[in-house]
Amino acid sequence: MKLNHLNLTVTDVAGSRDFLETYFNLKCVGSRGNGFAAMFDDDGFVLTLMKGKNVQYPKTFHIGFHQESKEEVDEINERLKNDGYDVEPPRQEHGYTFYVQAPGGFTVEVLS
């Protein structure tokens, strides 16, 4: 069995969509104004974004994007930092990893 769909409720659909397209190569294949966006990755996974108010995920909730190498993790970290995101340098934990707060109110982990 393969997980193929996830819905995130976000405070900013357009900002979340742009963030995921820019840094994680998801493609928006359909939207309804600023209230909904359907995004696909290269493997057919569908991530939908729905507008919500007062979105509060639990502190440990996050979505993750696995990279093939530490260099790719470093590259994304540097791009985010250069674009003004508050990111700590990657560190070795359960993988080579860092976390970033995405527009829209959710956390993203990048790891190899």
Automatic annotation (TrEMBL):
Q: Which InterPro entries match?
A: Fosfomycin_Res_Enzymes (IPR051332), Glyas_Bleomycin-R_OHBP_Dase (IPR029068), Glyas_Fos-R_dOase_dom (IPR004360), VOC_core (IPR037523)
Alphabetical list of Gene3D superfamilies matching this protein: 2,3-Dihydroxybiphenyl 1,2-Dioxygenase, domain 1 (3.10.180.10)
Q: Where is the VOC domain?
A: 2-112
Per its UniProt entry, which superkingdom is the organism in? Bacteria
CDD domains per record? VOC
Family matches, as SUPFAM superfamilies: Glyoxalase/Bleomycin resistance protein/Dihydroxybiphenyl dioxygenase
Q: Which Pfam families match?
A: Glyoxalase (PF00903)
Q: What is this protein called?
A: VOC family protein
